[in-house]
Amino acid sequence: MGRILAIDFGLKRTGIAVTDPLKIIASALTTVPTSEVFDFLSRYCSTEEVEKFIVGLPLYPDGNPAQIAPQVDIFAEKLKKLFPNKPVLRQDERYTSNEAKRIILASGIKKQKRRDKTLVDKIAAALILEQYMQEHYWI
Questions:
Q1: Which has fewest Cβ within 10 Å: 7, 52, 84, 124?
Q2: Domain extent for 96
Q3: What is the phi/psi pair of residue 132, to 5°?
Q4: How many distinct structural domains can be found in the chain?
């Protein structure tokens, strides 16, 4: 059984989260510079079985595409070409960054660590993955 890998694309950094092989738990994996994300994914997929990719779909609260949406669309298309045998699906990512910040604040992490934007990115990716799993796997 393969993992599901979720991606919170950003212009500078990209957050990545994965499920366990049984697809029960979504976990934040890492944040990588966006310029290195395809190399990272190639290395990761060479050592771990990934069944599909979930890419965050950036929308405004009213449902219209966010300003970054065209860049995310280009990223998703490149991902499909790099991994033609793995589905690349989209998941609404509204509010995931704000929810990630709230989780970090509530966790009691010290202020200096909370300023680490990479933490927000990988937690946002985990939230995207959790939402996908709730909609498609959990009752």
A1: 84
A2: 3-136
A3: -60, -45
A4: 1
